[in-house]
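Narrative of accomplishments. A recurring question from our advisory board has been how the design workflow behaves on a single, concrete structure rather than in aggregate. To address it, we present the structure tokens for one chain from the evaluation set, followed by the sequence designed for it. No filtering or post-editing was applied between the two.
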């Protein structure tokens, strides 16, 4: 298992569940965690291959890096499985479990339209990264599909003030997936626009939303007066949505994603057919309809308890886990 930095609890949550499920199968899990640089990821994969592992599970640094690690794995006859970020469909790819980021963005956009959001602050994870650009694309797509005038937004991602009469992105920023930089982006937006200069904020994950909410609090602004949307759906966001601090979130967990990857690897070892690339199912939830009992936990013990109790669907063969058509 080659993961991202454990300072990001998204990947830590996935690793802990994967390790538990692997141990139930009698597998030994070797892991290494770094700072996400290309050289260290390539070196880590090469080292695992030298140790003679049976399979690799990687959270990629970049598609270019993955192309190199897949070549190493393919040459060694070892399957390389991937999580979260869409890898190249190159020889050596054993499987991929991730989320339909465009759909997640569409769900947020549909919610924003119901609140008539027309002046949006967009805080992406990393400008141009697939998981971030997919959410942005989906959000804009939802407005366009509803016949809304978004002007030239789709061609001007990252340009402040781009858009049409029904939607302008009045402030763009990258929060790097973490709270502090996202807080700074939101503070800059508030300073630049004033409290009346925007009516919605779309934030690409819950860590960044935590920083955004801090910026609102320190500025003395009530976030419930705005449309506030996020994704991840971590337990803390369940509280935010229930309390009305944010409008909606999307429950897309690293725990369920890692669970699906473990099932792919198990099927590979057993020589059984399996879905090679899977869109892991998601659960959008909203202030007026949230049902905590149906949400998938990030916390390991809660996840395993609800899984073992059959409280949510986790079987890769269930139709809610769609095949990604880009990996036929």
């Amino acid at each position: 298992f080659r993961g991202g930095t454990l300072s990001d609890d998204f990947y830590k949550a996935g690793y802990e569940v994967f390790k538990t499920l692997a141990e139930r199968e009698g597998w030994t899990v070797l892991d290494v965690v770094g700072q996400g640089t290309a050289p260290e990821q390539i070196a880590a994969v090469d080292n695992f291959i030298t140790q003679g592992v049976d399979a690799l599970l990687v959270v990629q640094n970049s598609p270019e890096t993955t192309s190199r690690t897949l070549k190493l794995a393919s040459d060694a006859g070892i399957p390389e499985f991937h999580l979260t970020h869409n890898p190249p469909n190159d020889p050596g790819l054993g499987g991929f479990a991730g989320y339909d980021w465009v759909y997640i963005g569409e769900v947020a956009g549909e919610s924003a339209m119901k609140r008539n959001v027309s002046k949006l602050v967009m805080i992406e994870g990393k400008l141009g990264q697939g998981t971030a650009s997919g959410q942005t694309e989906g959000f804009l797509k939802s407005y366009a599909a509803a016949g809304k005038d978004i002007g030239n937004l789709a061609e001007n991602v990252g340009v402040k003030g781009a858009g049409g009469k029904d939607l302008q992105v009045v402030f763009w920023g990258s929060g790097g997936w973490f709270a502090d930089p996202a807080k700074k982006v939101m503070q800059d937006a508030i300073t630049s626009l004033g409290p009346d200069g925007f009516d919605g904020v779309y934030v690409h994950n819950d860590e960044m939303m935590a920083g955004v909410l801090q910026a609102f609090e320190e500025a003395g602004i009530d976030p419930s007066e705005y449309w506030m949307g996020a994704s991840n759906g971590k337990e803390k966001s369940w509280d935010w949505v229930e309390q009305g601090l944010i409008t909606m979130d999307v429950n897309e967990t690293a725990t369920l994603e890692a669970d699906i990857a473990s099932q792919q690897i198990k099927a590979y070892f057993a020589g059984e057919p399996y879905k090679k690339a899977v869109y892991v199912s998601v659960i959008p939830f909203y202030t007026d309809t949230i049902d905590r009992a149906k949400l998938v936990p990030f916390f390991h013990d809660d996840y395993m308890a609800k899984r073992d109790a059959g409280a949510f669907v986790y079987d890769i063969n269930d139709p809610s886990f769609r095949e990604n058509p880009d990996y036929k």
